[in-house]
Amino acid sequence: MTEYDEFAMFHENASEYGIALDQPPVVRRETVMLPTGLNLSALVWGDGPPELVLIHGGAQNAHTWDTVALALDRPLVAIDLPGHGHSDHRPSHHYTPIDMAADVAVAVEKLAPDALAVIGMSLGGVTAICLAADHPELVRRLGIVDVTPGTDHAKAEPIIAFVDGPEYFADFDEILGRTIEYNRGRSEQSLRRGVLHNAHELSDGRWTWRWDRIRAESTDGTASVEFTDLWAKVDAIDVPIALWQGGKWSVVGDEDVEEWMRRQPDTVHAVVDGAGHSIQGDRPIELAGLIEDLLAR
User: Fold this and answer.
1) What pLDDT does 185 receive?
2) Is 99 a catalytic residue?
3) In terms of Cα–Cα distance, which of 129, 172, 167 is closest to 147?
């Protein structure tokens, strides 16, 4: 079996991006029991009251934020969404942003009730939108990474092509190879870390992803990405907002930005040069700076 220590690789993140790290960061894993009896898992960074809540995208996990967390050097909580990372899979295999926001609210209320901002990426972004609309007492500022309710199956096709790939891989090299194939702009070292955090080895030596592969489907049985109904949630938000978009490629179209700004004209919109959909992975230092700007508002 391949050895894995989720807290042993922070020095790699720091070294790759020139972050000073004199000693290992203070990070622990916490588990919150939901009313359903299922568990939601999170990484808690630092000893002080968390100032930020970070929510990852679909088929990711809380470790996607590691480099951003190191750059920020603030106490914060990075949550594993239901069915992802170390959080329990739902027996129904049903995951919608509204449902997941309800679960995330339980975790935020316990772990970070006074957080200054909630940052969500992709699926975590639309979940954060629902959290801000449905649980406004928990969200004081909102940062959205490369998603809007206008994101659909066509815009997300490159991501869906990767996620809909094989369920099992013969060995670690095979699962890493596929990951490299779909993330050409990232270093092999960073992708290796990502696979170790996001997949696990089975007793027979094969590898599989940690996230629950079964997602909501459309009426014809194909995987569906449909968030249009969540525009009403955007209307309900009444806190400072930032919308950050990948400059290299994005699942956000010009028409989506126009619609967002029509509904929330005070939003600070920024395009991050050199970043794709996963800004936290492609340009983590720049994203940390944008988060600091949001906190200053």
Assistant:
1) 83
2) no
3) 129
pLDDT in tens, 187-196: 999 999 999 9
Smallest CA-to-CA distance from 239 within 142, 147, 130, 146 is with 142
CA distances from 157 to 68, 71, 162, 220, 291 (A): 26, 31, 9, 17, 28
Give the Cα-Cα-Cα angle 224, 264, 238 (nearest 5 degrees): 100
Show me where the domains of the chain are located: 11-151+229-295
Let me know if 146 is a catalytic residue.
yes
The amino acid that residue 186 corresponds to is R
- Span 16-28, mean pLDDT? 96
Q: Cα separations (Å) of 75 from 52, 90, 264? A: 7, 29, 29
Q: In what order do the strands lie in the sheet with 199-201?
A: 168-169, 207-209, 199-201
The neighbour count for residue 213, using CB atoms within 10 Å, is: 15
Catalytic residue among 41, 87, 122, 278: 122
* 11-151+229-295 is a CATH 3.40.50.1820 domain: yes
Find the catalytic residue in 41, 87, 277, 278: 277
Q: 277 an active-site residue?
A: yes
- Which among 88, 146, 256, 282 is annotated as catalytic? 146
- Full-prediction pTM beyond 0.85? yes
CA distance 198 to 196: 6
Per the CB < 8 A criterion, the answer to whether 63 and 127 are in contact is: no
Distance CA 20, CA 218 (A): 47
Assigned token pair, 88: 């329990």
For 109, the 3-state DSSP assignment is helix
| 127 neighbors 133 (Cβ within 8 angstroms) | no
